[in-house]
Amino acid sequence: xxxxxxxxxxxxxxxxxxxxxxxxxxxxxxxxxxxxxxxxxxxxxxxxxxxxxxxxxxxxxxxxxxxxxxxxxxxxxxxxxxxxxxxxxxxxxxxxxxxxxxxxxxxxxxxxxxxxxxxxxxxxxxxxxxxxxxxxxxxxxxxxxxxxxxxxxxxxxxxxxxxxxxxxxxxxxxxxxxxxxxxxxxxxxxxxxxxxxxxxxxxxxxxxxxxxxxxxxxxxxxxxxxxxxxxxxxxxxxxxxxxxxxxxxxxxxxxxxxxxxxxxxxxxxxxxxxxxxxxxxxxx
Length: 284
Ligand SMILES: Nc1ncnc2c1ncn2[C@@H]1O[C@H](COP(=O)(O)OP(=O)(O)OP(=O)(O)O)[C@@H](O)[C@H]1O
Hints:
Elements (H helix, E strand, L loop, with lengths): L2 E12 L2 E11 L3 E6 L5 H8 L7 E6 L2 E2 L10 E4 L11 H8 L8 H10 L13 H14 L4 E5 L7 H16 L4 E5 L3 H7 L2 E6 L2 E7 H7 L1 E5 L11 E5 L3 E4 L2 H10 L4 E6 L2 H9 L3
Parallel strand pairs: 3-8, 3-9, 6-7, 7-8
Antiparallel strand pairs: 1-2, 1-4, 4-5, 9-10, 11-13, 11-14, 12-13
Helix pairs in contact: 3-4
This protein binds adenosine-5'-triphosphate (ATP).
The site of adenosine-5'-triphosphate (ATP) has 11 residues, from helix 1.
């Protein structure tokens, strides 16, 4: 697969918090969900990807060009920040007029269609729009740049449920139009479930793993036993309830152990994606 972004040993210290060193590749044709608890460093990493925060060490490339080298890569990378400053007095239309000329591939038809889909009033000042409406306008502006990479920082946090649903469909459609990639920082399980090919987990400024979502589902399992286990710890075990219910994050090891010790399983099942993420964010 073709790489669109290479993050190599990137590191940034702000006050007493260090993000990195981070190594991460983003491939075209994939959607990666950046997940981590509050303060894990997701927004800082994204800002480094946009050269808005300068790393102390390491390098960051989009389509082979360093983010420091020139601004040419910006034609291929659109970004929706968590919040936007300095736009309050401008209307949606004025924001469009300011932004569109900078992007050679700006898609005006897409812009107007999305404005209609999200029922955005382009004559309203940004500062007078609701938080959800501001988010919708920001994402519509980002999508219409018609880039190869889209970086979204919690795009659905303030959106109502139908709008979230619409956005997910739009993003899936946007991906299908070309060879593209999306990086999305999110706390929304629905976003992850529906969109992500890869889950990138961040904790305490570090990327602790990049996992294929479909594979992850087979790594975790819940087991119910006929009798109490009476054993201190089983390989792969990450949680236990009443000595008769066990959660494993290493199904192969757990299954081998249970078979070898002739421990009778009443039932077993895979975990929901949100349970898996919760365990991963707890470091299990
Ligand atoms: N401009 C700044 N000045 C000082 N500290 C900062 C700045 N930006 C971020 N930080 C600190 O860096 C750490 C990482 O913050 P960041 O916003 O990247 O996390 P996050 O994973 O995006 O969190 P959230 O899920 O809450 O949005 C936090 O401890 C934060 O306080």
